[in-house]
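Methods: example folding runs. The two proteins below were folded one after another, and each record is reproduced exactly as written to the output file, sequence line first and structure-token line second.
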Amino acid sequence: MPPVIANDGKIYVGSFDQYLYCFNPDGTTNWKVITGGNIFSTPAIDNSGKIYVGTIDSYLYCFNPNGTTNWKCSIWGTTISSPALHNNRVYVGSDDNQLYCFNTNGSTNWMVKTGGGIVSSPAIRDGKIYIGSSDFNFYCFNTNGATNWKILAGNAIVSSPAIGDDNRVYFGSSDSYLYCSDTLGNVIWKSKTGDRIESSPVLGGDGKIYIGSWDDYFYCFNSDGSTNWMVKTGGNIVSSPAIDNNKNIYVGCDDGYLYCFKATNIIPQSASIPIILSIQVISTNQIYLEWSNVSNETSYTLFRSTVNDTNTATNIQGFSFNVTNYSDNTLIANTTYYYWVKAYNVMGPSGFSAVVWVKTLTGSGIKIPKEDVAVYNNYLDLSTGEPARIIFGKSGKVTIRIYTMRGVLVKEYPEETYNKGDKKEWFGDYMDTNNKVAAGIYIVVVTGDIDQKLKMIVK
């Protein structure tokens, strides 16, 4: 709940202790007044000095400059939205899905229903009220409550709008985009961040738009929607930024820090180059890869080729923010595959990672009947010591590997010849040198003269 500063220098701020506070410019308390609920809302102050604020007790309050209650009006839902004032009217949203319009004497002028709760705070320009809703729509209402137009975004709109001197309207959405529209409801552009946006945009006066995202980045966009710069913080940014007269930009972050950025000192950076950490053969047609999670990415792309040349590499899969593994199961037996990965952010891609390669398993190329390896008992019971067993239905030279369901290799047995009727058993100490095995589902992969996968359950 950001504070608001009156013309006389007094600071007004609400608190989770249910009080609205008035502080003097020197930090001493002028007064405080109790409400009936936590205060998320930022107060609004009219020309007479009266203070308007909403709380989660389903009331909108009006306090006199000395802290006494002037009036309070009932709202069907709780109020996180901050009120806005225009022409002796007070506009505020509520989680009961409605935008309310009150007169400054406390009487209700009108209310209009949207399709979802309203956390966004209204912005007003030229007799129009702009506000977002959790029904995925951004609304423009006339001062009589009639809908002028609405824009459908890809997810809820918690962010409050900002309106520029050029009559462009900016708002963020939980679909990860910052939107720019004109005042007629036409989307001019939208620019993607790496995660949902709950922060509200602030305009720099020079055409720059500043906003934070849940991807831990703080962004500066140009007036055409291109990214001017982005900087990594240590946590999600829900707070809305503020800019002082020296162009210093302040924003709070979920990592517990208040950041101050000097826009002229920030150099745009492309994503760092990731490293492929591991590559493992699963079967004749499957390979599992993991790569490092670089600090300034918003997505990754994995590339593959059958020759060690990035010019022949094919984009086989794109991945969203923080996804760092992939199981490639569209491969051919007995074939060497080369892999690279790139990281991306709004400044562009990184270079290719260092190449890694591996050859898929050979396999027999013949469909093996299920009875070649029969499951005698696929439960390894740690409490009773009962082992898991398989029985070979025919003779053959095979390699046995055990994987987790994610495709991580946990045990490999060297190639060995088994005769028809032989058993292979696993006890609770088969997994690692610590003689420990985690409960879960594992895949036993038999390859060689016999090619088969079986499920084993450890309980």
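Second run, written to the same file directly after the first:
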Amino acid sequence: MGFVLLLLLISYIIIHRDAKSIKQYKRKTTDLIGQLEQSVQRNEALIASRKKAVHTITHELRTPLTAITGYTELLQKECSKENNVNFLQSIQQSSDRMRDMLNTLLDFFRLEARDGMPFHHIHAAGKGSWDTMRQTLEAEQLTKTPGLDVREYIYDMADVMRAADLVICRAGASTVSELTALAVPAVIVPSPYVTNNHQEKNARILEKHGGAQVILEKDATGEALYRAAGETLRSPELRRSMSAGMAELGIPDATERIYRTVMALRK
């Protein structure tokens, strides 16, 4: 009898635990669906309005944040004084980079607010820097600025990028492919922290074809980015020309080409 009661008790504990896990999963799923629905609604409104929309991305903040975390962990494990000095210097450099990028964005936001938000601005901060960005916007009293839509993450990037009249971004391979496939004009700040400076090389090709304006990071102040964005968004003729330049480089059937190549190699 005692053994049966023990089995019943164990069964109850397992069922209770599973029920709790299912409940937590449903709650997380419901929250995610809610976020997606809100994002879709905002993007549908944006596509309908098409009012000088500019889209900026700073997932690049993840790089210095990751470096700070990594070097801090190494400091805790390392006993060599020389190595510790190098780690501290790397942490300082990464912190400076993150501060500079945040200041650049804030300068851009302030100029927009000063001029009455001349365009609809969607900015993706990235999960790693979202808390810092949100707190900074609150301190600057920019959280309720009409036309400034700062998000942790854009769940449907294709819709937002398609709706944008201008994208301000880096020049990684995936980003370049998306810009050219959608023929979206861009102001590009290539990352200098990459192998063989390949992002600037990518960006220069787009610039050569008239699809993008390139601003090096050392020159990418908030004012410089704001001026470049304004010049592009105020000129429908310039945007059409830039869009045509992007389209020249686009390969919309890239997936089909890759598939055909793979299938041909199989024969």
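Comment on the second run: The mean pLDDT is 81.
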